Amino acid sequence: MDAQLEQITKSARGILETIPPHVILVAATKGRHIDEVEAVLKAGVTHVGHNYVQEAQPIIDALGPRATWHMIGHLQRNKAKKAVDLFDLIDTVDSLRLAKALDRHCASVGKAMQVLVEINCGREASKTGVMPEDLDGLVESLSKLKHIRVLGLMTMGPSFGDPEYARPYFYETREAFFRISNMGLPNVTMRYLSMGMSNSFQVAIEEGANIVRIGTKLFEPRV
Ligand SMILES: *Cc1c(COP(=O)(O)O)cnc(C)c1O
């Protein structure tokens, strides 16, 4: 195994040792070669995230049973069918129209799709995700879809240089997580709170994240 892949396995082990045992590490693998994905699995990573359906397909086809596969990129409705076939979880549901497209395809193949609802906690025009004020209404609508299981929330959070600035947004997202949990909706089980990336995962965990999505820190050698 070459040095670069060894380094990736080492980085992954390091991060797994750093995070508390109840926190799931999702390796964010956009643009990564299948060998690189295998290197993180070798380290004991069990959840892998992809941003693009097309790019994920050959990798999931090859490594399928070895991991739980998350769609972490923005999903277009015309890719809903393919996404249902490929992924275990879709972490980026942010509209009823998208959820209905997923629900329709799930109905035809007899599957229930596990999803997270993506929230645009910083209300940024450049980001996807449902606006905080529309979150409860969306989750209520999703709870009526027979083949959709809402398992939590995901957020990117605004990206500042200093992760401390993201803290209030993570805090707000956690508040929303508990609020929805208390709504007692059918088909909604608030189990996962996915927040934090390479530069912010420590702060996100302090604010209650139990999934972190990490790419750069896994795959790019420290300089
Ligand atoms: C790329 C990506 C990440 C990982 O970001 P890093 O800063 O490279 O750790 C996390 N979440 C999503 C949705 C991403 O696209």
Walkthrough of the structure:
An eight-stranded parallel beta sheet has the order 7-6-5-4-3-2-1-8. The two termini are 22 Å apart. It has 223 residues and is of the alpha/beta class. The chain has helices spanning 3-18, 34-42, 53-63, 80-86, 96-109, 135-142, 167-181, 201-206, 216-219; strands at 24-28, 47-50, 68-71, 89-93, 113-118, 148-155, 188-195, 211-214. Strand 3, helix 4 (80-86) and strand 4 form a beta-alpha-beta unit.
Fraction of residues in β-strands: 15-25%
Kindly report the spatial arrangement of strands forming the biggest sheet. Answer: 7-6-5-4-3-2-1-8
What hetero molecules are in the model?
pyridoxal-5'-phosphate
Order of helices and strands: HEHEHEHEHEHEHEHEH
Tally of strands:
8
- Give the overall average pLDDT: 96
> What is the 3D form?
globular
Distance between the termini: 22 Å
Helix-and-strand structural type: alpha/beta
